[in-house]
Design goal:
The complex is a heterodimer of chains A (about 170) and B (about 80). Chain A is an all-alpha fold. Chain A has 2 domains: about 90 residues, Rna Polymerase Sigma Factor, Chain: A (Orthogonal Bundle); about 80 residues, Arc Repressor Mutant, subunit A (Orthogonal Bundle). Chain A contains 9 helices and no strands. In chain A, helix 6 crosses helix 9. Chain A is globular. By secondary structure, chain B is an all-alpha fold. Classes of the chains: A mainly alpha (about 170), B mainly alpha (about 80). The interface between A and B is large, with 55 and 46 residues.
Chain lengths: ~170, ~80
């Protein structure tokens, strides 16, 4: 089977339709990425925007990367952030909006696991983001780093801190 | 809550991240949006051509590459 990198490269060389196969491979995963963070309706609204942005930006994809998922998640993340910025949401008193409050708020509403949701909410956003990319999207720390545009070592240390903080918070809750 | 066990905590996190499959038609509709962009490119001058070699370029004045999204890494375009 051809890699995503090969397909994307071909799509840049006169066969733009080759990109559609990349989308077919990852559309369920990218939809889930969006739905976990913004809900099913927003995911449905934003998925097409992710594909159009990815298609427009595919010239920058390094075809040596066989799996396009981290790259697509990075684009989906940017689309989500634009969505959150554009939304007429109340501005927190601190003026320091954390869109991930939405995610944790969704967990609070959906889960009985209140302690875990509370522990997630208490994490610094950068640590929480790495943790959820690994736990939910099944990425390696290096792949999560690619999504976030940070060095792999940074992602690993954030993940380590997030797990330690979560364990501690849950121990204190019991 | 007994999530001092890392494996149990990971399982619980995974469970929290479970979402329903997309509604019928959602994936198709998004792909249709993509197809519109694909068709537009097929009908127009061409793709971004990241690693296009000099020998592949058409003769004549250099074409200026289309502007790209600010959030995309820079392709190795014609210079």
């Amino acid at each position: 089977m051809e890699t995503d990198g090969t397909l994307i490269e071909r799509s840049c060389r006169g066969r733009p339709d080759a990109f559609v196969e990349v989308v077919r491979r990852h559309e369920t995963a990218v939809h889930a990425f969006l739905a976990r963070r913004a809900g099913a309706q927003a995911a449905a609204d934003l998925l097409g925007e992710v594909w159009v942005r990815a298609f427009a930006g595919r010239g920058g994809y390094d075809p040596a990367h066989a799996d396009a998922r981290p790259w697509l998640y990075g684009i989906a993340r940017n689309v989500l952030r634009a969505h959150w910025r554009a939304r007429p949401a109340p501005v927190p008193a601190t003026g320091n909006a954390d869109p991930w409050d939405d995610v944790v708020g969704r967990l609070d509403a959906a889960a009985q696991a209140g302690a875990l949701a509370a522990a997630l909410r208490a994490l610094p956003p950068a640590e929480r983001e790495v943790l959820l990319l690994v736990a939910w999207e099944q990425l390696t720390p290096a792949e999560a780093a690619a999504v976030l545009g940070v060095p792999p070592g940074t992602a690993r240390s954030r993940l380590h801190r997030a797990r330690a903080a979560l364990r501690l918070a849950l121990q204190e809750a019991t | 809550m007994t999530q001092e066990n890392p494996a149990e905590m990971a399982r619980e996190l995974t469970r929290l991240g479970q979402v329903a499959a997309p509604e019928p038609g959602v994936l198709d509709a998004a792909r249709e949006t993509l197809w519109a962009a694909v068709a537009a490119e097929m009908l127009s001058a061409g793709p971004p051509a990241p690693a296009r070699r000099a020998a592949d370029r058409p003769a004549g004045p250099a074409r200026r590459a289309a502007p790209r999204e600010a959030n995309q890494p820079g392709p190795e375009q014609d210079r």
